Amino acid sequence: MSEAVREAPKKERPEFRNIHVTELSNYRMPLAAIVSILHRISGVGMFVLLPFVLYLLQNSLRSEISFAYYEGFVTYPLVKVIILGLSWSFLHHMCAGIRHLVMDLHIGLDKHSARKSSATVLVISLVLTALIALKLFGVF
């Protein structure tokens, strides 16, 4: 081997590390990643609260008295906020699921389309949740 090849300076290679939990606030995720994370969070939330919702449904269907009891229970503001959270969870999970099904058909995979569909999912789920909130809190 010649001297020039042996003496060639080696380029510094960049160091790629996994992101630590403390560095998450410095990392700017794209909108599609945020929608994907919210999709997972909403799915977990619905799964965890499903037994509670089914328990309330079962007890409300037992008799007219139990239905009247749970009808009064739903009038509390904290319960309304929990129902609103469950509504957002369902609506966001449904909209993001439809987005993922469309992406499974290889539609909208480029950067611009993914960002646009992510924004659409957020807007639709928040608008529908706002409509439910208006109905739930007695505006119409």
UniProtKB/TrEMBL annotation:
Membrane-anchoring subunit of succinate dehydrogenase (SDH). Part of an enzyme complex containing four subunits: a flavoprotein, an iron-sulfur protein, plus two membrane-anchoring proteins, SdhC and SdhD. The complex can form homotrimers. Its cofactor is heme. One of its GO terms (biological process) is tricarboxylic acid cycle. GO terms for molecular function: electron transfer activity; metal ion binding. Keywords: Heme, Iron, Membrane, Metal-binding, Transmembrane, Transmembrane helix. Belongs to the cytochrome b560 family. Heme binds at H93. It is found in: Membrane. This is Succinate dehydrogenase cytochrome b556 subunit. The gene is sdhC. The chain crosses the membrane at residues 37-57, 77-98, 119-138. It comes from Duganella flavida. The keyword Transmembrane helix applies.
